């Protein structure tokens, strides 16, 4: 009986790992595929800006879809592990990571082309990134301050 219990636990652990490995990643975890910026060398700065806006919209849509799939997979995995672990073998949601990676790569290529042509949009992107980094640093400092305050109250 002890041997049967061990086999069941090992089977459950393997099934959980298989289920987690097949889950769709969140959009944030999808890395861009390489796309050559050379295809945009004939574009004007205005064309690059317009194309970046189109690609950014597609990235946003694909990210939303990917995050939805990732959430569904996480929920299905949790239910499968707790209630019916053999169902994990059939976990196969849609996964748009290849399309999202391509779109992210295309955006990066457009950005590289904008930098190469010294377009104003490249400077705008750099300024926006700097502001975002500063905002994140400020948020992190605020969180640290809140944690210190809670610790001192104890």
Discrete helix count: 4
- Elements, N to C (H/E): HHHH
Spatial separation of the terminal alpha carbons:
49 Å
Major pleated sheet: none
Average pLDDT over all residues:
78
**Estimated share of beta-strand residues:** under 5%
Shape: flat
Q: Can you tell me the number of structural domains? A: 1
Tell me the structural class.
mainly alpha
Count of strand segments? 0
Spans of at least 5 consecutive residues with low confidence:
12-21
Helical content class:
over 70%
> What's the gyration radius in Å?
23 Å
Task: Give structural notes.
With 154 residues, the protein is mainly alpha-helical. It has one domain (2-118). It is 73% helix and 0% strand. The protein has helices spanning 2-21, 45-82, 97-116, 120-153. α1 (2-21) packs antiparallel against α2, α2 (45-82) runs antiparallel to α3 and α3 (97-116) crosses α4. The relative contact order is 0.15.
How would you summarize the topology of this molecule?
Blueprint: H1 2-21, H2 45-82, H3 97-116, H4 120-153
């Amino acid at each position: 009986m002890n041997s049967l219990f061990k086999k069941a636990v090992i089977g459950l652990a393997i099934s959980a790992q298989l289920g987690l490995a097949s889950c769709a990643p969140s959009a944030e975890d999808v890395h861009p595929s390489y796309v050559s910026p050379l295809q945009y060398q004939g574009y004007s700065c205005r064309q690059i800006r317009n194309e970046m806006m189109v690609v950014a919209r597609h990235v946003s849509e694909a990210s939303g879809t990917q995050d939805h799939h990732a959430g569904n997979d996480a929920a299905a995995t949790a239910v499968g592990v707790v209630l019916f672990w053999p169902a994990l073998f059939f976990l196969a949601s849609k996964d748009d990571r290849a399309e999202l990676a391509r779109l992210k790569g295309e955006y990066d290529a457009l950005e590289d082309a904008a930098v190469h042509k010294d377009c104003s949009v490249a400077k705008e992107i750099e300024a926006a990134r700097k502001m975002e980094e500063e905002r994140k640093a400020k948020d992190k400092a605020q969180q640290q301050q809140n944690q210190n305050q809670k610790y001192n109250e104890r």
